[in-house]
Amino acid sequence: MMPHRKHFISLLIFISFGIVADGVPCGSKFMKVSKRSLAYDQDYGEDSSSSDFLPLEIMVLTSSRFDPLPYDTQASFEDALHHMSELVSVRRHSKPYLLKNAIEKCAKDWMGSDSRLNRGHFARDARQYYDEYAGKIDLNEFGKNFALFLYEDRDLCEKDPAMLAAANPCQPENAERPLVATLIVCSNNPVWSGFKNAFDLFRHEILHALGYGTFNAKQPAPPLHYPWKLSQETQYWKAHFMDFANRATAYAKYHFDCPQLDGVESDEDKIHLDEYIYGNELMTPNVGNGQNYFTSISAKILEETYTRKQWYQVNQQIVKEETQLYWYGKKWGCTFAKKSCAEFIEEKTHYRSNNGLDIPAFPFCNADNLDVATDGRKLELCVTNGTDSRILRTGCYIGRRGYRYGESRLPATSLYDLFGDDIPARASQSTGAEPPRRYCPFVDFVAKEDDSVGEWPANSKIVKC
Ligand SMILES: [Zn+2]
């Protein structure tokens, strides 16, 4: 993974200057080893009875040198632990023991040599057991079935001021699910000061801790090259895909209304859902200050992440409620999911021009919108589900000029490259949103993932204002 490291550092340092308060990388990419390998075959035919599964109950171990989390962050962490217990059930483990050596080895893998475990790491009620059992704790004794080793890695955190937190599971000893994971929280990093959504951040990290995006499949989904037409030239985008996503792909086809979808597109390391395609889904790299939804797409990936026998089940009712609120990408079609934003904008502007929509190519601004927005005027987007409506006022997100090559998998693209002579001269040399959003001219609140627009009504559509 080392060749990618430099790339990510430059990308995230850029983000720290660009959208610190609006969308923040979780930082899992910065772990020294980003993925574990699973070498076992999956048995899809295996039936599991519900008595094989228990609500996820997490024991938190903290480093004796770890400063307590700030009050609000700690409260959000505890809310997230409680919520995840309702959301996720885990398979009973045949040996639910925390072994001192195993945790130390895992901590060393992630955190370097200075991570010796002592009884001070354990919750007060577990310390005595730690002594009595000489480093072996039976999680059952505490009504727990998973452990998080909470830690602050000062070196890692200082190296990347845009990192909020990171989590990775420790290697399971056999085909059973992981029992323990590391969670790093960089609570002294300045990026926390503009961040208001620690609850979603911890939900996101706990899913990584369980194995979401952090295990390698035996047969990884291969990358594909998509041709992207711009105004004058064609670019080739190397699309990567999430593993363990057979059922998720079937659902995503329905969500986007795109039967030709090839898979669930991911970031380069296959740890997160692609930011551009999946927007405010919980498992994209940026956890925004607005709503981040744990949808059926991620739920199915989690349920399919296992060896031999299924490790996790999710609470379908909670997932259904969040999925209904997830508006990003809904019925936006294959042009959105597989082609360039220039092609999507052209198609939607053409087909919707008679509908009287202010922003016909939503989530993007078209050339007319950019003309209005760069003139300082606002655009309106109206959404309704028939009984509940919202009017959102927005602008277009104009990026800084001169992104450097290497900040994205694509060469830097100006708005002129996307629109040609249709673009107003005053904006032609500007770019759209940041590299994870492919320099495309997103409307303001989408690019920022902020909380200014509140929630959309469930199952709403864009209508003429
Ligand atoms: Zn993450």
Automatic annotation (TrEMBL):
Any one Gene Ontology BP term: proteolysis
Cofactor comment: Binds 1 zinc ion per subunit.
Residues the record lists as binding Zn(2+): 204, 208, 272
N-terminal signal peptide: 1-23
Record's keyword terms, sorted: Hydrolase, Metal-binding, Metalloprotease, Protease, Signal, Zinc
Co-factor(s): Zn(2+)
EC number(s) per entry: 3.4.24.-
Ribosomal protein as UniProt keyword: no
One Pfam family in the UniProt entry: Peptidase_M8
One GO molecular-function entry: metal ion binding
InterPro entries xref list: Peptidase_M8 (IPR001577)
A cellular component annotation (GO) from this entry: cytoplasm
Active site: 205
Family from the record: Belongs to the peptidase M8 family.
Stated name of the protein: Leishmanolysin-like peptidase
